[in-house]
Write a structure and sequence with these properties.
single chain; alpha/beta; Rossmann fold; Dna Ligase, domain 1; D-amino Acid Aminotransferase, Chain A, domain 1; seven-stranded mixed sheet; six-stranded antiparallel sheet; 24 helices; 29 strands; flat
Length: about 700
């Protein structure tokens, strides 16, 4: 009989060996063995112990090699120095999957890292897959598998949420909290050091796992960001499964070292946020939020839109729910006339039949049923949030039953979330709602936040994915420019080189020339026409305006000659010992200043940036980021995401700028960094864009190579 390969051998094994099984109470080996039995693993379990013949009433074997039957998965919990020999024995035995619980590898220093590398070499040489080392284990609650190969103290509930955690210490908290809030787990994997199996591997596996409906991640890093983006989009857009993630390390200070505007604005947590948003991943701020939102996704359909109705028996919580709904990006549904007539007939005169619908404190279970049905049947309502505050005269379980009846009677695929406040009186009602798949939250804000995340995911899935665009470019010319800088040992291209690189990729630039004498500058000005701009173009001067290195609107030979003298003095005053070099340009007048940039982030890969340009970019910080590679639809969304978009689109009757050109420039820069991934930072600041038919172009550019 064939045995499972790849991650199937780890998460869907037909047999499991526990190497390091023990009879000592509280030992990890004993807990793993006990959990396998307690969850009811649907295959044979083989304890491996050097001296014991039986453990937990099961026949034990001295080594993996001695087991006379096939073994799919080996869970290894022996001291670190013994792990290498055990892995070699597993390779000889033909074991396909390993979960190495043992710590003492890369996380402890160079010696541990070397041992880990040896283990990985054996694993890969024999085609095995390994979770860990230094992990808590793996779980699969599928009734056909029922695998708990972990040392957690909590048996999970069966459900549709797959969970991957890079923190082993968080594992037990995850399992116990999930059980406490009623979130069922499909599979759980503690990744540990991620020496072999990564989070990206798990995302690929869960994309096609029929038991998994939603993926929950606790991330410290994403490994290969390009692969993460590709696989995450396969899960979210391709399979329609939401990914919810908590990403630690929000306070990185890497942006402080960035030299370009794009690098400083994209640094730290913003890059990771761009990566996750670009893949449709719902980012959660806390693990508690992760569970709250996960319950909604696991149990309810996605809303067709963002219009929510609130049904309550208390005015204060209704207002709380309304405020939270607006805060989390929802809109309050406008109820149809037929709906309000139905509500008015069902409720006393004192009740409010506008959204939020306040039935007042005397609302009966039957009124909850009738009003819930009417609201869900309204075509202008996409989701329903039911709030119940338990008064003395109303029986919470009866309210819960009638809510379920009303939802079923409506017969529509819309999400319904509940908020039963005052749990001491409402626990039984909450349990009845949970049995019907309606999650309840202690406060309206959590429920509204969950609905907001569900609506946001639905919008992301429905938006135009767009298509990749490739332009004809002069790549050999670009390679020559980069090659010359490399040969000279320079990380930064000078201004003329940067503009020439852009020109090679079809990005409009202003007419420019590198000059060293006033005579050369005057000859350029006579050729292209006044006014002109003169700039320092000296290695080591990145932000020229900081040292007075730019002279604009030069309209005569005398002004050009004077600018040469002033810029040379500025260089000397700044203490920069370099031969003065200059860039002279035709001055662009009119148009809007924008910034277009790219940056390579260590955690998220290459990002593109667009925003308002010039000296205001760092002051205003009105920028939008996109994830490389962009589609044409991505470029359009980036432009419209900045607050200054109305200024570009034609604010108060002004003529709009050439939006199509801006989109094309973003896509050309995106193609450039795809062809030259060693571009670490790039700024086109400003890129002056004018209305259609008028001159537009990059006025200044900076490019840094890794």
């Amino acid at each position: 009989m064939d045995h499972p390969e790849g991650l199937d051998a780890i998460l869907r094994p037909r047999s499991v060996a526990v190497v390091g099984a023990s009879r000592s109470e509280g030992s990890i080996g004993r807990e793993i063995l006990r959990n396998l039995v307690a969850l009811g693993f649907q295959g044979p379990v083989y304890p491996v112990h050097p001296t014991s013949e039986h453990l937990l009433s099961m026949r034990a074997w001295p080594t993996v090699d001695a087991i006379p039957h096939p073994v799919d998965l080996a869970v290894i919990a022996v001291p670190a120095p013994a792990v290498r020999d055990v892995v070699e024995a597993c390779a000889r035995k033909g074991v396909r999957g390993l979960v190495v619980i043992t710590a003492g590898f890369r996380e402890v220093g160079a010696g541990g890292a070397a041992l880990e590398a040896e283990v990985v070499e054996i694993v890969r040489a024999h085609g095995m897959r390994m979770v860990g080392p230094n992990c808590m284990g793996v779980i699969n609650t599928d009734p056909a598998v029922r695998l708990d190969a972990s040392f957690g103290a909590t048996l999970p509930l069966t459900g549709g949420a797959a969970f991957a955690s890079q923190s082993g210490a968080l594992g037990e908290v995850v399992l116990s909290t999930a059980r406490a809030v009623g979130l069922g787990i499909s599979q759980f994997v503690s990744l540990g050091n991620k020496a072999d199996v990564s989070g990206n591997d798990l995302l690929s596996f869960w994309a096609d796992d029929p038991q998994t409906k939603v993926v929950l991640l606790y991330l410290e890093s994403v490994g290969n960001p390009r692969r993460f983006a590709r696989v995450a989009r396969q899960v979210t857009r391709g399979r329609g499964k939401p990914i919810l993630a908590v990403k630690s390390g929000r306070t990185q200070q890497g942006a402080a070292a960035a030299s370009s505007h794009t690098g400083s604005l994209a640094g730290g947590d913003r890059a990771m946020g761009t990566l996750l948003a670009g893949c449709g991943v719902i980012r959660c701020n806390t693990v508690a939020e992760l569970f709250d939102v996960g319950r909604g996704f696991c149990s309810q359909p996605l809303p067709p839109g963002d219009r929510v109705a609130v049904l309550t028996n208390a005015g204060g919580p209704g207002i709380m729910a309304t405020d939270a709904a607006i805060h989390f990006g929802l809109t309050m549904a406008t109820l149809g006339d037929d709906t309000t007539a139905t509500l008015r007939a069902a409720l006393p005169p004192e009740a409010s039949v506008q959204n939020p619908v306040d039935m007042i404190a005397s609302a009966s279970p039957e009124q909850y049923r009738d009003c819930a049905r009417a609201l869900l049947a309204d075509p202008g309502v996409d989701a329903l949030l039911v709030v119940f505050v338990s008064p003395v005269v109303t029986h919470p379980p009866s309210v819960a039953r009638r809510i379920v009846e009303g939802v079923r009677a409506a017969g529509v695929e819309k999400p319904v979330l509940a908020c039963f406040m005052g749990r001491a009186l409402g626990d039984e009602g909450i349990a009845l709602l949970a049995e019907a798949g309606i999650p309840s939250y202690p406060f309206p804000e959590s429920a509204a936040q969950t609905l907001g995340a569900m609506a946001r995911f639905q919008r992301w899935r429905a938006q135009d994915e767009g298509r990749p665009v490739a332009f004809e470019v002069d790549r050999p010319r670009a390679e020559a420019i980069v090659g010359r800088a490399r040969a000279a040992g320079r990380d930064w291209l000078d201004g003329a080189e940067a503009l020439a690189l852009l020109d090679a990729y079809g990005v409009p630039t202003v007419p420019s020339a590198r000059v060293t004498t006033p005579g050369e500058a005057l000859a350029f000005a006579e050729r292209v026409g006044y006014p002109v701009v003169l700039k320092l173009d000296v290695e080591g001067v990145v932000h020229k305006s900081d040292i007075g290195g730019v002279k604009i609107d030069l309209r005569s030979p005398g002004e050009v000659k004077g600018a040469f003298w002033d810029l040379t003095e500025s260089l000397r005053a700044a203490g920069i010992d370099a031969a003065p070099r200059f860039l002279v340009q035709r001055m662009l007048t009119g148009g809007r200043e924008t910034i277009i940039g790219a940056v390579q982030d260590a955690t998220a890969g290459h990002l593109l940036m667009f925003g308002l340009g010039g000296v205001f970019v760092e002051l205003m910080k009105d920028v939008a980021f996109g994830l490389h590679p962009l589609t044409d639809a991505d470029a359009g969304r980036m432009l419209r995401a900045v607050k200054g978009w109305p200024l570009l689109a034609g604010y108060r009757g002004a003529e709009p700028v050439d939006v199509g050109l801006l989109e094309q420039v973003l896509l050309r820069v995106d193609q450039l960094i795809g062809d030259f991934p060693d571009i670490a930072e790039m700024d086109l600041n400003p890129f002056v864009v004018a209305p259609v038919g008028q001159p537009s172009g990059a006025v200044d550019a900076r490019v840094r190579l890794t």
